[in-house]
Specification:
Layout lengths: L1 E5 L3 H12 L3 E5 L16 E2 L12 H11 L4 E3 L5 H12 L3 H29 L10 E5 L2 H16 L5 E3 L1 H7 L12 E5 L3 E2 L2 H14 L3 E3 L4 E7 L2 E7 L2 E3 L3 E4 L5 H6 L8 E11 L11 E3 L4 E6 L2 E10 L12 H11 L9 E9 L6 E4 L5 E5 L5 H16 L16
Bound molecules: flavin-adenine dinucleotide (FAD).
Length: 415
C-alpha cells in the first residue's frame, strides 16, 4: 500500500519504520525542516513504565488548586479565551475519578511495557544510537504521603508483572550515591529496573536515516493543509505544495492532530500541556545521575544524555504558545543545582518549551477513524517517547489487518 504519514515527530517516524518494515511504500510529510524538532525534541528522555500513570487522578484537582494558590505554576490551568481549553479541562476532570484513573493508568502501563519491548526490538534491528542508558529509573519522594502512594504504584506495576522495588533512604543513596547530600530530605523511592532513558530526538533522527535506507521518503518544509474526503474515504491530502493521493493516511501531528481532522467533522480531545526543559553540559559525569529519574514532590525529571544533563519540569494547561521569557526556568535551575550542582555547568543552560499532546485521560488514540483509510496515532501526552515504538507496531498491525499483540482497549477512537 502507498501510505502517507502526516508529521515526523517520534510517533510519525516510529510509525514510518514499522509500516516500511511491513513492506508498504511510505512517505512522511513534515512542516519543519527536520524530524523531531517539535515536542519530541527536548523531553526528559525517560522510557518509563514507572511513570505510566494517568495525570487525571483523584489528587489532580487539589494539586492544581494548591499550585495555583502558591503561584508556583508547576501544574497549572491558565484560563484562555478558548472553548476547546475549557471543554478539555472538563473532560480531564471527568477522568479524575478513582475508577477512570485506574483504568487509564493500566491502559497506559500496558502500552508502555509493550513499547519498551518494541524499543528493544527496533534497536536490535537497526543499531540506532541515542545516548541510551539501561540502568532502571528511580522515582524518589520527600514526604511519607507520596512514598505511600509509591506502594500503590508498585502494586499497579505488579498487575502487569513489572518488577519494582521500594527503597528506603539508605536504599536510595545506594542506588544513587550522588544523593548522599539529600539523604535527610528524602523518605524513599520506587526503583523500576526495566525502565531506561535516552534522547528521543537523536533516536528519531537516527531512525529517519534507517527508514530512508528502507525506501521511506521524507518531505520537509511542507505544510499539511487539509484532507479531501470522498464518501467514507480520504481521496487525497492537500499541502502547501499540492495534492497527493495514497491508499492510506496516518495522522501523527501531535497537538495539531485535532485541527486537521476537525475539517472532516471528526473530534479528538487533544490539548497542549506545556512543559520546560534545560540541557546543560556535564562537567563531571561522576557527580551526575547514575540512572535517570524523577524528584516526585518537586515534579522534576532528569537524565544524563551522553555528556549532557537534561532536566524537565511543569505541566501547564495554557494554550498553544511555546514562547518564553526565561524567568520561568529559574526555579527548576535552582532545584537542578541542589540535585546535581557539581555535575554540570549551569551558567548557560539551553532552554526549551514543549507542548505535550494530551488526551484528557492520558491514553493515546491508535485506531482507524470513521474514514476507512484514515488512521490516527496521536495524543501520547507526557509519554510519547516511551510509547512510540509500541504504538507504531500496533498501528502497523491494524493497517495490516492483524490482531495487535496487546489489548488496545482504551486506545480506540470514540469521537
Ligand atoms: C517537558 C516535557 C518532558 C517530557 N518527557 C518525556 C519523557 O521523559 N518520556 C516520554 O515518554 N515522553 C516525554 N514527553 C512527551 C513526549 O515528548 C511527547 O509525547 C512526544 O514527543 C509526542 O510526539 P508526537 O510525534 O506525537 O508529536 P510531535 O513531536 O509534536 O510531532 C508532531 C509533528 O507534526 C508536525 N506538524 C504539525 N502540524 C503540521 C502540519 N500542518 N503539516 C506538517 N507537519 C506538521 C510538527 O512539526 C511535528 O514535527 C515530554 C514532553 C515534554 C513537553
Amino acid at each position: 500500500m502507498k501510505i502517507i504519514i502526516l508529521g515526523a515527530g517520534v510517533i510519525g517516524v516510529a510509525s514510518a519504520y514499522q509500516l516500511a518494515k511491513d513492506g508498504h511504500e511510505v512517505t512522511v510529510i513534515e512542516k519543519a525542516e527536520e524530524a523531531a524538532g517539535f515536542t519530541s525534541f527536548g523531553n526528559a528522555g525517560l522510557v518509563t513504565c514507572g511513570h505510566s500513570h494517568s495525570w487525571a487522578s483523584p489528587d489532580a484537582p487539589g494539586q492544581m488548586l494548591r499550585s495555583f494558590l502558591r503561584n508556583d505554576r508547576k501544574i497549572g490551568f491558565q484560563p484562555q479565551l478558548s472553548p476547546s481549553q475549557w471543554l478539555w479541562a472538563l473532560k480531564f476532570l471527568r477522568q479524575c475519578t478513582p475508577e477512570n484513573s485506574r483504568k487509564n493508568s493500566l491502559n497506559m502501563q500496558r502500552l508502555a511495557q509493550y513499547s519498551t519491548e518494541m524499543l528493544q526490538e527496533v534497536v536490535g534491528e537497526t543499531g540506532v544510537e541515542y545516548d541510551r542508558r539501561q540502568k532502571g529509573l528511580i522515582y524518589f519522594y520527600r514526604t511519607q504521603k507520596s512514598l505511600d502512594a509509591a506502594a500503590h504504584q508498585a502494586d499497579l506495576l505488579a498487575e502487569d508483572g513489572i518488577a519494582s522495588e521500594i527503597l528506603d533512604r539508605d536504599g536510595v543513596v545506594a542506588r544513587e550515591p550522588n544523593f548522599a547530600h539529600l539523604k535527610d530530605k528524602l523518605t524513599g523511592a520506587l526503583y523500576v529496573p526495566s525502565d531506561e532513558s535516552g534522547d528521543s530526538n537523536l533516536f528519531t533522527l537516527a531512525l529517519v536515516r534507517k527508514c530512508e535506507q528502507m525506501g521511506v521518503t521524507f518531505r520537509y518544509g511542507e505544510n499539511v493543509v487539509s484532507l479531501e474526503g470522498n464518501g467514507d474515504e480520504i481521496a487525497a491530502v492537500l499541502t502547501d505544495r499540492g495534492r497527493e493521493e495514497a491508499d492510506a493516511y496516518v495522522v501523527c501531528l501531535g497537538i495539531y492532530s485535532p485541527h486537521l481532522i476537525r475539517q472532516l467533522g471528526l473530534k479528538l480531545p487533544i490539548y497542549p500541556v506545556r512543559g520546560y526543559s534545560i540541557t546543560l553540559p556535564m562537567t563531571d559525569s561522576s557527580k551526575g545521575p547514575h540512572q535517570a529519574g524523577v524528584d516526585e514532590d518537586n515534579l522534576l525529571a532528569y537524565s544524563a544524555l551522553g555528556n549532557r544533563l537534561r532536566i524537565t519540569s511543569t505541566a501547564e494547561i495554557a494554550g498553544y504558545s511555546n514562547a518564553y521569557e526565561g524567568k520561568e526556568f529559574l526555579g527548576m535551575i535552582d532545584e537542578g543545582k541542589t540535585l546535581f550542582g557539581e555535575a554540570a555547568d549551569f551558567s548557560d543552560p539551553k532552554l526549551w518549551v514543549g507542548l505535550r499532546p494530551m488526551m484528557p485521560g492520558g491514553v493515546p488514540v491508535i485506531d482507524r477513524s470513521p474514514y476507512s483509510n484514515l488512521w490516527l496515532n496521536t495524543g501520547h501526552g507526557h509519554l510519547g517517547w516511551t510509547m512510540s515504538n509500541g504504538s507504531a507496531r500496533i498501528l502497523a498491525d491494524l493497517v495490516g489487518q492483524r490482531q495487535p499483540q496487546i489489548d488496545t482497549k482504551g486506545m480506540r477512537y470514540d469521537g
